[in-house]
From TrEMBL:
InterPro entries per UniProt: DUF72, NAD(P)-bd_dom_sf, UPF0759_sf
Domain of life: Eukaryota
Name listed for the protein in its UniProt record: DUF72 domain-containing protein
Amino acid sequence: QALQWAVEGLAKAGTLSIIGVYPPQARHFPIGLAMNKNLTLNMGNCHHRKYIPRLIELVLAKRIDPARILTQVKPMGDAIEAFKAFDRREAGWIKVELHPQRHGSAGTAGEEQVKDAEQGLAQKRELAFAARAVGSIEINGSFYALQTPERYADWAAQTPEGFVFSVKAPRFITHVRRLRDIEAPLANFMASGLLRLGPRLGALLWQFPPSFRFDAKRFEAFLAQLPHDGEQALALVRQCEPRMHREGYLDLAPGTRLRHAVEIRHESFRSPAFIELLRRHGVALVVADTAGKWPLLEDLTADFVYLRLHGDKALYASGYSEEALEAWQRRIEAWQQGRQVPDARLAEPDQLAEGGTRDVYCYFDNDLKVRAPYDARRLLERLGLDRDLAVRPGQPPAEGVLP
């Protein structure tokens, strides 16, 4: 019926583009009417064979990681339930990978330990290991798809007391909607379960694309909608779409507070008006080291600092030298003590915004060559924050360290 309406509604010599998936049983199309109106028809998928060889090259060179688009990874034994969840369009079920389960002859305990050592840490234990090697992790999957209350609760349960998660906000709000008509998406994000992190909830990261320019009116409206405590967040949760209503979505840990940080990538944000706007709403400006590709601003706009180190020589790839880590150490220590560094790169030079002590969240995103965990640990050691960490990146955990 939709195709019939489309053909009837087009002017003569128009173009009809057909998207979606039609089964072989769909055999009815008003071909006569389309020919009489001299329409041009477009349909079909993109030319996969043209792009696949180049994509394979990029994957092999580790320039792109296709696993980043995955929102669920399940064993093959869960295939039926996984397909049901996908078919119901449940939150977080967008790109799903089913892992084949390996079967083989049973070996001795010693043989199994050798296999574990050769294959690396089991995936289900990776978070527990990482949470004892560093003090905080930035959740990136939430940028691509809404997670679930069960998943957030599970992450919290796997980490020790004092561990902190920062959560990257959905690109649907920042990149797709571009801050327009975001009331429902914002409520859905708050209802996705992040409040179940409780005291382990750090800051929410709002990253904007390089094409997004500073629009004072739009940004003001956006910042005014952000909740800063649990009750404000819960009020938003109650406005979410019915599809988000699932067990635990209204759970709220006592004393929950929400901090927000904004990462910008367009020169138009190098503006005193933007800095004043962030300060008025208590939102942090992300200090982003991007090897010179995007603005690096160090204006202090909140009671905490959010630092993202993407690589100082090559974006997402280069590691940090001891000299570079020492420079960031000096900055972090100054910010923690409520001071601004003398050589700070500022959009508003006249406002150093010195004041009380500040928390500093620092994340390494130079992960193309797996430098991030090692650089993070070296910086923690420089800051004297490694004393309570039980394991080191790249080394197997001692017996009994992991739950």
